[in-house]
Structures are given as structure tokens and as C-alpha cells.
Write a structure and sequence with these properties.
mainly alpha, 4 helices
Amino acid sequence: KIRERVELGAVGERVLKTSGLDKMIAATIYVMILAFTYGTVSALVVTVNQSLAHTLLGAASLMGYAELDENEVYTPCVIAVFFITLPLCFKNLQNTKKFTVVIMWCRFLAITILLMVGVYKSIERFRHENL
């Protein structure tokens, strides 16, 4: 059973604490964690916002709205994602049961909408082709 949770940088400090070289290696571990996190988050930020913007543009065009410029949709997506994730940066995510339930319901809703739109489009096509 795990009695204490220690993040990777602190493990490096505990293991490598005897000489100056060990402290430099421990500091390098922190730099590597920071670089990895920054790179991963940067990739996710672009991917999530582009995907959200494309989804909204696709939904708007399917519903018959006037075609929007991608930049007009992308910028509000970036702002929305920023304000959703900012509070999460300051939250203790050890007990995330409620957050996980919300994510589960969002996934369920997304899959349900996807299936409903697919069935609707299939029925519409069958009617159009007189099948």
C-alpha cells in the first residue's frame, strides 16, 4: 500500500542528495519534467482547440448556418478552454470522482449526439434515394 505520494522531482532530490553532481542531476530531472510537460501541453492546446473549432464549424454548417471563418471560431475556443482549464491548474486533483463523473457524462452525451446525427442523416439519405 502506498503511504506517501511523492512527485518525480522530489524522488530525484531524495535519491540524489549527497554531492554537487547529484544535485545537478536532480535539477536536470526538474528541467526534463518541465520541458516534457510544456511540450505535451502545447501539443494538446493546439489539438483540442483546432478540433473544437472544426467540430463547431461542422455542426453549424450541418444546421444550415452561414459559413464562418475558422479564426472567428478558433479564438473563442481558445478563450473558453483557457477559462475551463485555469481553475483546474490550482485544484488538488487527488480526489477527482465528481470531475470524472462529469467527464463521463460529457462523453456519453457526445456519443449519443453522434449516434443521433448519424441515424438522422442515414434516414434522410434513405428517404432521398427512395429506399
